[in-house]
Amino acid sequence: MTTATFDLPVGSQKSTSAAGIAIALLLPIALVNAIGFILPVLNLARMSFNEALPGGGIADAFTVANWTGLLQDGFYIELITNSIVVSLGITLATLLVSYPIALYLHRASGAWRTFLTVLVISPLLTSAVVRTYGWIALLADQGPVANAIAAMGFQPPRMMFNTTGVVIGLTEILMPYMILSLMAGFGRLDPKVEEAARTLGATPFRTFRRVILPLTVPGIALGCLLCFVLAISSFITPKLMGGGRVFLLATEIYDQAIVTLNWPLAATLSMLVLIIFGAALAVYSRILRMIEG
Amino acid sequence: MMFARLSIAVSALTIAAVSGASAETVTLTAYSGIFQDHYTKAVIEPFMKKYPDITVQFYGMPNSAQMLGTLRAQKSSPQIDVAILDVSVAKAGTDEGLFDKVDESVSPNVKDLYPNARPEGVAGVGVTFDNLVVIYNTDQVKNAPKSWNALWDKQYEGKLIIPAVPDIQGTTFTIISNKLAGGTDYKSDVSAGIAKIGELAPGVQTWEPKPDVYAPIANGQAAMAIGWNARAQIYSGTSGGKLGVALPEEGRGFQINTINLVKNAPAGDAAKKFIDYALSPEAQAAFTSEMFYAPTNSKTVVAEDALKRTAADDMDKMIDIDWLAVAKIRDSITDQWRRRIIPLSR
């Protein structure tokens, strides 16, 4: 990718040395990437074709049993669809609560904007584990939220150790990423365009739907991609807040790799997550092309 | 994150192993946390006093599976000499050729071990016995439960914690429930036990307590749970009695931790010396008094007060579990939990 920024005139004496420098500069990072990322991924791909023995053993083999087993097993099909649906739900929830904040931040200026931005980013300074425990305390059966609902005369629903808890926890944890992505993508949103829409008689809602929303699509797409990828690969929050009822891809990979010791199955699931990432990226670039095209 | 921490620990360990390469450092891996604290105090420190030229480094890991993963990764150049891990995981490690056999040539104490501390097909031998018991919050449960059936009492609905499979507490509980439900041989069929746990499922608060099952019982988040006796006894003390331990009359689920000699261990004979000491009556008695794991050496003389709090006084009250047979059916048990128990709790 970086090579594209080099200007290489063909045939001249200088160009060979420039190309040499380019290669020399790229070599270290290419090597690090090859050793630190590509090799392990290939290793993982190879592992997914090994045979798992009962009790955690691994036999060197070349079998597609892990893959076919995965795609024929009702439990895993449910797990995969559940992971995708829950992650999409979390992404949508994060977008809905983050969008107004990002829009307000985009319009704010000066010290106030700086202050608010720091406020938005500050949760990232605390580990997700700590914030998850915070949510556990808040949403527990006798916690403040349940007590407040009970005080209003309603029967508090179970909000912890189920999918509700996971969605609430991850939505809050992913909000800073969404807000920052949205703000980064709001570059094209010029206040003058909004003013023009209003002076031409558009209602605030119409202005939003026809002017603001289309202009902010790049930010929305970026934020959704990032949050979806983070949601589907997060495992600490689902592990702590799911109570063992919520089966997601990432938690299942952890269980298979660390508890059951079925590394071939864990590798197969990991490759599947990579495939889902690839699909998410494809959707993202398609959306971007649609906007530009 | 856990992997990052693990890799840092592994590299630190490598450095430590290289700098202490005089072959008189024995690196032991076993459970981190309270096991590490108490084992260091009761066994490792006295050992180092007895053999001043040998240093034992304790490299703690949260569970047996992670230890096996580390041993697997180091197979070509082991950094760990001795590993204490659960018997079913030790069997997997043995099958992969990670361990050397521990027999009379390694330690004369091996001949004094109880027969079930020398499981067939496992390179290591039993170093501690533990058992699965009922634990409860003493504020919420006034009368100490006497039977496993207390868990099925409707008044504790929504206040139960059951660590689900693949955690072996869940596996052990399956076998116990199978027995309670009148199931016959768990090795061929556990469906009666699965159905019985299914009745419990709607009232289970969490299947995956963090950091462990003891904390939420001690602080009152839940009323009743299942847990390991040794740890429960310790937390019963540290929680000021908030956590109660009940040894059910139908018997307790039996678990073995084995001590294993890593193949091509860098410490050589020093590692064997340590294993010999760990199996000796004196070390066994000290650890039983310290943490209430039952001894595996039949010659061990256990102090009276510790005896009552371990499995040691009535081994016939134990529900015998053939862990090597269980290892073969573990996948099927896990499957049945996921399809027939956990969905009932949603």
Automatic annotation (TrEMBL), chain A:
Major location category of this protein: membrane
InterPro entries found in the cross-reference section: MetI-like, MetI-like_sf
Tagged with keyword Transmembrane helix: yes
Biological process terms in GO annotation: transmembrane transport
Membrane topology listed for this record: Multi-pass membrane protein
CDD domains (alphabetical): TM_PBP2
Regions that span the bilayer: 21-42, 79-103, 115-139, 159-180, 211-236, 263-284
Stored Pfam families: BPD_transp_1
Domain ABC transmembrane type-1: 80-284
Subcellular location: Cell membrane
Domain of life: Bacteria
Keywords in alphabetical order: Cell membrane, Membrane, Transmembrane, Transmembrane helix, Transport
A cellular component term, taken from the record's GO annotations: plasma membrane
Record-stated family: Belongs to the binding-protein-dependent transport system permease family. CysTW subfamily.
Name used for this protein in its record: Polyamine ABC transporter permease
Automatic annotation (TrEMBL), chain B:
Keywords attached to this entry: Periplasm, Signal, Transport
MF terms in GO: thiamine binding; thiamine pyrophosphate binding
InterPro entries assigned to the protein according to its UniProt record, in alphabetical order: SBP, SBP_1_CS
GO biological process: thiamine transport; transmembrane transport
Signal peptide residues on this chain, from the entry's feature table: 1-23
Pfam families named in the record: SBP_bac_8 (PF13416)
Example of a GO cellular component annotation carried by this entry: outer membrane-bounded periplasmic space
Record has ATP-binding as a keyword: no
Matching CDD domains: PBP2_polyamine_RpCGA009 (cd13589)
Protein family: Belongs to the bacterial solute-binding protein 1 family.
Protein name: Polyamine ABC transporter substrate-binding protein
